[in-house]
Amino acid sequence: MSEYERRLAAAKAELDSVGLKAPRMIPGMPFLLRMLGESPRPWPYLPLHLRLLAYGIPFALINFVVNVLWHWTSFRQDPTIILAMSLIAIPLFTLLMGFLERMRWCRKGLSRWEEL
């Protein structure tokens, strides 16, 4: 059994013992994690910055599309206002999701991936 498989089994056992169920990974996530130099692991054991990116990047794309679509309708905005709204909304949303992540997973007393 490799080191990765041992850690993965220990992580699943720890999640079961605490009574938590980790969300399933989206299909492309293991590939993206390998590209970033990380090993695929259950969601609570991912580093916080990767979990924040998983929330921030889709929100940024949705925010951009909504602002562009509003700009094409009769609702006209100055492009600098759209940029300012995006530069404020994206970090605020990401920080909010980070706070919720800390409340949901980090206060459960789970071990770090490196300690498993």
Q: Helix/strand/pairing class, anyone?
A: mainly alpha
Shape: elongated
> What is the string of helix and strand elements?
HHHH
* Count of individual domains: 1
Q: How many beta strands in the DSSP annotation?
A: 0
Task: Give the low-confidence spans.
Answer: none
Give me the number of helical elements.
Answer: 4
Biggest sheet features: none
* Distance between the amino and carboxyl termini: 14 Å
InterPro entries: DUF6404
Pfam family, one: DUF6404
Keywords: Membrane, Transmembrane, Transmembrane helix
Can you walk through the features of this model?
The chain crosses the membrane at residues 52-73, 79-100. The chain is mainly alpha-helical and 116 residues long. It has one domain (3-115). Helix content is 64%, strand content 0%. The protein contains 4 helices and no strands. The chain has helices at 3-18, 29-35, 48-72, 79-104. It is elongated and about 60 Å long. The two termini are 14 Å apart. The mean pLDDT is 84.
